[in-house]
Amino acid sequence: MIDVTLESVSKRFARGGDTAAVDDVDITIAAGEFFTLLGPSGCGKTTTLRMVAGFYFPTSGRIRFGAEDVTRRPPNKRDTGMVFQNYALFPHMSVAQNVAYGLKIRKVNRAESRRRVEEALGQVHLGGYGDRRIDELSGGQQQRVALARALVIRPKTLLLDEPLSNLDAKLREETRTEIRRIQKEAGTTGIYVTHDQAEAMAMSDRIAVMQSGRVQQIGAPQEIYHRPATSFVARFIGRSNVLTLPVLAGTAQTVTVGLPGGGEIVVPAPADHGLSQGETALVSVRPEHIGLTATTEPGALPGRVTELEFTGMATNLVVDTAGEQVQVAAVDVPAGITVGDQVGLRLNRERMWVVRP
Amino acid sequence: MTTIPATPSPATVAPVTKDPTPPPGPRRRLAARFAGGTGSRWFPYVLVFPLALVLFGYVVQPMFATFAESVGVDGVENYGSFLTSDGVARSSLVTSLVISAASVLLCGIVGVAMAFLLKRFSFPGRKLIEAIILVPAALPPLIGAISFQLLYSETGILPRGLQQLFGAENPVLPFSGIAGVLVVHTFTMYPYFYLSASAALGGMDPSVEEAAYNLGAGRVRVWRTVLLPMLTPALVSASLLVFMTSLASYTAPLLFGVDQTMTMQIYINRTNGDLPMASTYASVLGVVSVLFLLGMRWYEGRRSYRSQSKGVAAHRREITNPLGKWLALAASLLATAVLLAPVATIALVAFSEDGSWTTEVIPAQYTMQNFVTIFSEPRAFQPILNSLQMSLIATVACVVVGVLIAYAVRRLNFRGRGLLDVAVMLAWALPGTVVAINLISAFSTGNAFSFGQVLIGTFWIMPLAYFVRFLPLVFRSSSATLAQIDPSLEEAARNLGASWWRAFGTVTLRLMLPGVLAGALLAFVHGVGEFVASVLIYTSQTAPISVEINNRMYSFEVGTAAAYGMLQVVLIFVVMVVSGRLEGGRRSSREAARWTA
Q1: Domain at B86-302+322-350: CATH architecture
Q2: pLDDT tens digits for B137-179?
Q3: What region, left, alpha or beta, does residue A208 occupy, with left being phi > 0 and alpha being psi -120 to 50 degrees?
Q4: Which domain holds residue A63?
Q5: Residue A168 CA from chain centroid, whole number
Q6: From A97, which residue of chain B is nearest by alpha-carbon distance?
Q7: Chain A, chain B: beta-carbon pairs less than 8 Å apart
Q8: For the structural domain made of B40-72+368-597, what CATH number should be given?
Q9: Which chain B residue has the Cα nearest residue A15?
């Protein structure tokens, strides 16, 4: 167990021209933490993980494991355990030989090695599978062999590069709980890469949301969901309406903004928002934090339903308020509402949040 | 294979009573049986029977004829000569095996090193070398061997050039005898290793290697415990191929004067009129080749490591240090020169005056006369005509039979499917010399497959030999294309109302066309360059280009011989370019297959 620090790390590829795959990233991961790099494909999350593993060296910046600078240390001297997206099991070795590979390199004696391989396979519920060939296993089983192989060497950090993306939906949910349990049991620091926001929310202690090589926000899942730092984070995690509204007044923790149909609302904002009267603010409000009421209710935002879709748990609507298309997810919809009807929208002020562009 | 039921199941049958057409008569019922296409229980056998007959008549039966010939007179003595330690037979067998083993070793070292350098490193000149790396191997066997003789033998350009450079008494570093044979084999056969090793390296999931580094293995250890074991299947099958090809090699021992090899002994005994002894050599060589074929099929079925990765690019290491860069550039230039030297030599000599080249490093006098001669002198033009004609006839037959066999083996379900496949591959495994002896044994008297005619000494034995030798080329390329085509495409055509013939013609055959064409072109080029079988069965009227080249070499008309060789070389490069285009077309049809899948 060890903490991992990235200090203004950048990576430019020789053929990538001027654009950086990873651009000035600062991350500190605490020992024992399960930390996720989340973002769309091409955002630099895998490149970042591969720099931690040592397959790429940063163009600038430093990487530390604890107090040790490992920036230019080769991958085989880093003592990380990595689970690859396609598992990367050695096809010419049995399950047990695969798991024992790292132990053999560490010159662990045979009896000890056999014991630890059995233990690791037991941990991933593959006890007794040691003599199987790799191609005799299902995708889910191969995934667990890869996990056992990475864990058996008791690595300082466990690196996981989209390990669930080749599994089907049901198995994916089972396995993510499993990975989380095993990481906590092993007491190792976990760094996880994914593009699936639900996976990231369910598993992580903290998440770094990345876009175009930059970190957009680092925080616990709840914080990222309810207090997104930027409009990208608001839209990438779950769904969100990001409304552009005129600022009427600003205080340390709030901003007062004007609403499309007239009226105003006081919205919570980050302390450093720096907005004052005359500017415009980006305000994020999630569809489930908007309620439907009668148009006559005081403070309600009048609008017209333009789309309506019943999904069972909730009804998804798009409501046009003074030209702004607002998404609403309502659990309770008054009977008989159809496209074209006039409705009132009630915004949950506490759940709104001012974001940066 | 097919999911169309033989008879419509009750659920899908429309009520018959409403059908206004009268019940079918006997003739219509017969037609209906064939219209049932692949679904009919009969159909596979109707299609396969003539194909099986062809393979039996011209591949399998001649093999037995050769064996009968070898045991007919003095059978025990013939085979006994392989057991006595002082005889020519035994030493020929041993020499052939030793040459083959050495060829495997040399080709393995060169081929794997090339694959590793070109696939794993990035350096100036890499693309050029990748483009021309197969050039020496693409030459027809005789022209290939001749070019190496002109380059590296005692009278060759390089030893004489070095002699002049250093002012030495004798040619420097000449290759002769077995060493010469090994040089030819290494240059022409290392592509087997290069191609399979680079395919294996390219298909290998780079993250498997990374996983080993991640677990703490160093560079050497990753090579020893991960890369080499994963390359093993590719290296074993390449070794078997090179061994087989070396055993079958005939032109290299012929030109470098190594008489005591199996193929040379077949030729020598045949020309001395001792057909039983030639047949004995052919039988022994045939059995060894078939054993290797079976070994190869067994091994390939046993293990292969498919990459599970999806589009992860293998990384190449850039050579960054300046000294390494210059060294790499110099080595690239040298490799380019070596790879292009054989073709360049043939081209140079083709313009030299016959008899003008004696002790000089390169010919002294140049002329266009050689090309004028081979096109204007009727006697000199005849071999060109012969080769084109015989190769064309053989190619047409190869396409008809090869495509149908490929279809039968890939798509139909019938008893003996494996046997049909093995029979085609048998034709591929047998050395050209053995094929010739087989045909001589089978058709020196008339039999059912030659319609009672004696074929030896006639025109027809030549295209027949080409057909047997090159049928596997068309078969393999057709069958590979067929494997890419989803059977449901044909089923869709059938579902839309096409008869089997129509569905086969408009969909399956149409999609197979690029592969079939590529195979046909390959067969045609090989036919035009064929020497090994021809030299045993030609007559003065049917002498092909290669035999004429050989004869001209013997009468020291090196320039004219090289001019004929240039014709073959030009034809090959034209075909390579055309096939490259076809390959592109095939890729787009594969792309299309992916979209429809």
Answers
A1: Orthogonal Bundle (1.10)
A2: 888 889 989 999 899 988 888 888 888 888 888 888 888 889 9
A3: beta
A4: 4-231
A5: 19
A6: B225
A7: 74
A8: 1.10.3720.10
A9: B318
